[in-house]
Amino acid sequence: MVWIPKNCYCFYRLIIISALCVLNSRKKEQQLRKHVCLPTCVWFASAEVLQIQSRMSCPAPNTPTRTLIRNVRPICSMYNENTSENTVTRNCVTDSPNAGICFIVPAHYFEHKIKEGSAEQRDRAIYTLKISQLIRGQRMALSGVQTLGLSAHAKVRREVYDMQNSQTQTELPGKSVRQEGSKDTGDQDADNVFNNSGTVYKFYNEVFKRNSLNNRGMTLVSSVHFARDYDNAYWNGRQMVYGDGDDIDFKKHKLAGLLDVTGHEMTHGVTNFTSNLDYVGESGGLNESMSDCFGVMIAQWAANQTVDAASWLIGEGLMMEGEALRSMKDPGKAYPGDDQIKNYKDYRDDMDVHTSSGIGNYAFYLACKNVGGHSWEKIGKVWYITNTARLKHGSGFQDAANHTFDVAGSLFGEGGTEQKAVSDAWKKTGLEAKKPDLLANVGPRVVRR
Amino acid sequence: MKIFFEQSGGIAGLSRKITIDTNSLPPSEVQEIESMVNSSNFYELPSTITQPKSNGAADYFKYKITLESDNGSNKHKVQTSDITMPSQLTPFIAYLRRKAKEHNRLSK
Ligand SMILES: [Zn+2]
User: Fold this and answer.
1) Whole-prediction pTM value?
2) Which of A82, A86, A379, B50 has its CA 20 to 30 A from that of B22?
3) Does domain A102-273 have CATH number 3.40.50.150?
């Protein structure tokens, strides 16, 4: 009997499917996948297993990629962007010119591609090298790569660094000031970020059973005092970075001190490891909105607030002028000059992603209000599953409406009050939630990046 | 020389712009700018140093810098971000950020 993680029967099914696929002809394989591997199974597979593949390879559409699963012969899949179909084949050569790049390919291959390859090959190679260094690196080790199963001992691991006002990207994360088990530093920003990232970890772990940003126990790395008088906090694809503020536009020490800001940034990390929504256009607005929805939810969870008691503000008290960065209850009304939109008819492609995010924010707020109680208990779950297991990199607001509608039906009953709460909410943002085409979603999630 | 600088994006999605005419600056500051332009190899930098749309990063500032000589004969524009900015460009961007902050508040 092989080892099977208790909590993931889809993983079990995937192993069986993979084993059967290896034993059967290509045609048979496709039939098997069609019949045995239901879409749900594929999503679970993408969330729990294939996520690792996606971190290791960076395939372009119409190129084969390899799925690496321990003890199972690699499966190759070819994703066709036009038909949204994933074809499974038995044999694949990873370093053929058209192949997706895998982690197991030696580093000199990438170095060659960086020097000699086309612009696209170069980008992919740089990206993959970065990821493999990240996987190999001590600090950022993706602990799940070896075991695939969820860690039985989910435990937060935090590291806080001080950039000492440097803005140089290569100096990140900076000077180590605090890690798990060490005492307060006395630096307000470093200690706040340390505590807040712990609360965010706890939220994702207790509410959604998620073990850190990558669901594999990844260390939470944060740097404070980035640049001088820097009015911003960001996620750079590997870690959280916080500026000091300047008391001109943003109050000092607020960026590092607000739980919803840390929740917002860390959710960019979760999104990065799951739907990986592009940071441009509609998917960028949706990516931003996910960060606001979970940021606000985390603050409400920590304060044990109901949807009626909550302020629904993001970055409250951060700005020198104005109430907050964003209002989810009243998008566009957070500060003088706020132009955030809340209806899809006002969407334009050239908008900043923090402007169009109002559509998703408002839908989330309304759905939570329609249901009542605690945001994280029902609608929060719907949004979590949608972001981590349904959306793909190019998804837009209509996809979000359709999938949240569908997930609400699966979780709480088709045609139930929760599902109606979701569709009523999206209707007020100008979108009609429909049953999504589930098969259309399978391919891109499997071969993402 | 004229310098156009714009910072946009960030967690708030706000921008700040400034146009600097170096003829209006004290000579010591002009010298400082020239040395930053030279040490960053500004005119040899590619015009877009930005990341692919799907590298997962979010909320970083985006920067646009254009330098134009007085007679308009020499003009170069560089677009970059907090994440993709080459190290040698950091001091120049830090200077421009400070300059823009002295003159303009963040706005939409
Ligand atoms: Zn954001």
Assistant:
1) 0.74
2) B50
3) no
